[in-house]
Amino acid sequence: PYEQCAYVGDTFSTDIKGAILSGMIPVWYCGERSGVTDRKDVMIVHSSKELLDLFAKDEKTMQWLFSQVKQ
User: Fold this and answer.
1) Could you tell me which residues are beta bridge partners of residue 29?
2) 40 three-class SS
3) pLDDT higher than threshold 80 for residue 64
4) pLDDT in tens, 15-50
5) Is 46 helix (H, G, I), strand (E, B) or coil?
6) How many angstroms separate the CA atoms of 43 and 65, rounded?
7) pTM for this structure?
8) Reduced to 3 states, what is the DSSP secondary structure of residue 25?
């Protein structure tokens, strides 16, 4: 199901908005840039380690992430 899939992208206007519109969990990979958004359902990461840490979370944390997209 789309609502249980994360989409990682580096361009907000196409990647992240597309993930939001399709019902996926948006993860914005900003690298060294400072990504700023007031959307609470968009996770922002700045490194590959941070991205891996995001997906290595326990099941309770992942359920919380999924619930944020549905709000």
Assistant:
1) 45
2) coil
3) no
4) 999 999 999 999 999 877 777 788 888 988 998 888
5) coil
6) 9
7) 0.73
8) strand
